[in-house]
Amino acid sequence: MKGGRLHYVLKDVSLDIPSNHSIGVLGPNGAGKSTLLRMIGGAEAPNSGEIKTNSSVSWPLGLGVGFQGSLSGRQNVLFVCQINGLSKAETKQVLEGVIDFTELGDFFDMPVKTYSSGMRGRLGFGLSINFDFDYYLIDELTSVGDATFRAKATKEFERIKETSSLIYVAHNLQLLKESCNSALFLRDGEADYYEDIMDGIRAYQKYISAKTGGPVKKSAVKKTAKKLATNSIRKKQPPANEN
Amino acid sequence: MGIRIKEQSAWRSQVLVTKALLQREFITRFGKYKLGVIWVFVDPLLSVLVIGVLLGPLIGRSTGEIPYAFFLLCGFMLLNLCTGSINASLGAINANQGLLVFKKVQPLDPFIARFIFQLLTVGSALVIFCLTAAWFGTFLSTDRLPEAAACIIITWLIGSGIGLCSGIAVIKFKELEKIISYAMRPMIFVSAVLFPIDSIPPEIAKYLLYNPLVHTIEYLRMTLFPIYKANNVNLYYPAAWALCSCVCGLMSYRNNRHFLTQR
User: Fold this and answer.
1) Which of A4, A141, A202, B261 is 20 to 30 Å apart from B81, CA to CA?
2) Is residue A83, in this structure, part of any structural domain at all?
3) For residue B256, what is the DSSP state?
């Protein structure tokens, strides 16, 4: 912890997110978007309070998240199938789906730490689309891979949006406008839900212009660094120190 | 079209995740080297050989009834069970960072997997050594096998509990990693691995007896070789240690649960 000061990412937030809505999560850097996504997906536990849902939710999907570098792509896929209790037939189906989609060839049996970031992204995306979730949590799964892959990915994305909902963290407002119908706006430890994505985007833009235009206000929230900024950077780098 | 993930009971999830992580441990430890599996046996044997040759003539006489090689083997393997668990725990979270993103994988699971891995490898090596020795004619008693198993389990629990505490402490204070692994090294001298506790003068022995491993190691020797006797040694003291260390470990996990994923 940096300097031992407490930093509340999201303080006393209570939200009811309706089902069958694709939600774009907006906010300035460090507002807690990725943290919220991680908490919804079960990667982090809140310090207090709880997260309840009846739907099936994916793990937070992002660039190269959820892989153990020293295991091969195949072993990583098998790991995910194993912890979710898939039968042999289901595992086979997932494996074939991933191999087919990612087109990694021989790399599929090589350690993930040898992959480029594009390959990791493909593997992560390919793995998640072979499962059927009610909610897909997507953390800036920005364009990775070449044009053919991106065409494939967009097609799959469209297919997913037909049957499932997304909770999408991104800075690209255009992308959010196209993919989502509602918005969640996070800033300074607070969160607001907007039924209409356009309202959310407007609120965000107002906030930004207020911040850059007006005087800098001192935050009333106590601060303990939770390394949020480094969190989003770390996601894009292959993790070190693995054995 | 995609696979729908079915709800599992909490226990079944725990079993599945532990099995998957155990498999991951086996793949990473033993996959790289063809000799990987053999190393589990070769390592203690080599230690026994080297120490046996160096110290055997000196100390061998005072162990009396049991062959010094076996004396050493018991000591080395039980010590390894404990210190190996502690050393393995230091890297448990870091090495499995990527996998913690799944809801099913809780930060406690890599620890559990590593501890079970340690028990399986060292435990089976010990059993195989005993069987080999018995086959070669060394007289090994099988009357007190449950007590022998108790020695092994208690040692393992002590190592696991302390390991859990250290593994979590290391996340907060990275410098502890070096300190703890160095602190494990002199354990070989104070755990009655090389010499029987009875051969030590009482003024020093009474301090060594505070080490729970002295009790489990000497007790194991007594259960396997009935003629071997060690005084002032019992299983209640290390059992209490096992209980306390596990409780401390789990408490420190509970208190730091959030910190472990907020990296």
Assistant:
1) B261
2) no
3) T
Q: What are phi and psi of A192, to 5 degrees?
A: -130, 140
Range of the domain at A194: 23-64+134-235
CB contact under 8 A, A79 and B1: no
CATH of the domain at A159: 3.40.50.300
Which residues of chain A have a CB within 8 Å of the CB of B27? 71, 75
* A133 phi-psi bin (left φ>0, alpha ψ -120 to 50, beta other): beta
Residue A71 pLDDT > 50, yes or no?
yes
Residue A129: closest CA among chain B residues belongs to which residue?
B2
Q: Is residue A114 part of a domain?
A: no
Which residue from B16, B91, B261 is facing A85, i.e. has the nearest CB?
Answer: B16
Task: State the total domains in chain A.
Answer: 1
User: What does the longest C-alpha to C-alpha distance in chain A come to?
Assistant: 61
The string of pLDDT tens digits covering residues A118-173 is 888 888 888 888 898 888 888 765 555 667 777 777 788 788 888 888 888 887 78
The H or E element spanning position A166 is: strand A165-169
Q: What residues of chain B lie within 8 A of the CB of A45, using their CB?
A: 257-258, 261
Burial class (CB in 10 A: 0-12, 13-18, 19+), B9: exposed
Taking only the tens place, the pLDDT of each residue in B78-105 is 999 999 899 999 989 988 888 988 988 9
Residue contact B16–A227, C-beta within 8 A: no
Is residue A4 domain-resident?
no
Confirm if B223 and B141 have CB atoms less than 8 A apart.
Answer: yes
ipTM of this predicted structure: 0.85
Backbone angles phi, psi at A227, to 5 degrees: 55, 45
Q: Which of A59, A82, A132 minimises the CB distance to B2? A: A132
Structure tokens at B181: 């692994």
Contact A152, A101 (CB under 8 A): yes
Beta carbons of A71 and B27 less than 8 Å apart: yes
Q: Which pLDDT value is given to residue B63?
A: 64
Residues of B in contact with A71 (CB under 8 A): 24, 27-28
Beta bridge partners of A191: A186
A186 found inside a domain: yes
Report how many Cβ contacts below 8 Å link chain A to chain B.
112
